[in-house]
Amino acid sequence: MDIINEALEFEQTKFKSLSTSDRVEISRKAKALILALNEIYKQKKDDKIMDIMKRLTAIKRKVEKRLHGRSLIANI
Fold first, then answer.
1. H or E segment at 73?
2. Which domain of life does the UniProt lineage start with (predicted)?
3. How would residue 17 be classed by pLDDT, with cut points 50, 70 and 90?
4. 7: nearest Cα among 61, 48, 62
């Protein structure tokens, strides 16, 4: 359950005015937490764990969108 608490703390942190290296670090940490939670979810099938993974995935996508920039097709 230590991973769940760590994921909840990570979710509560503020992600404003980040450098590129901070964004990479956040993305990697989110991915590691999601994978760890997934292993727990496979055993317990708890919907609360799935909800945490979904919220972390949303944070990860938001950070990665800013990290990678917008595609050229979206600008046309």
1. helix 72-75
2. Bacteria
3. confident
4. 48
Whether this model's pTM surpasses 0.90: no
Length of the chain counted residue by residue: 76
Structural domain count of the chain: 1
| DSSP of 25-59 | HHHHHHHHHHHHHHHHHHHH--HHHHHHHHHHHHH
Parent domain of 62: 22-67
What amino acid is encoded at 31 in this protein?
Answer: K
Give a yes or no: residue 59 inside a domain. Answer: yes
Residue 71 φ/ψ region, left for φ over 0, alpha for ψ in the -120 to 50 degree band, beta for the rest: beta
Crossing angle of the two packed helices 47-68 and 2-12, in degrees rounded to 10: 40
Q: Is residue 7 part of a domain?
A: no
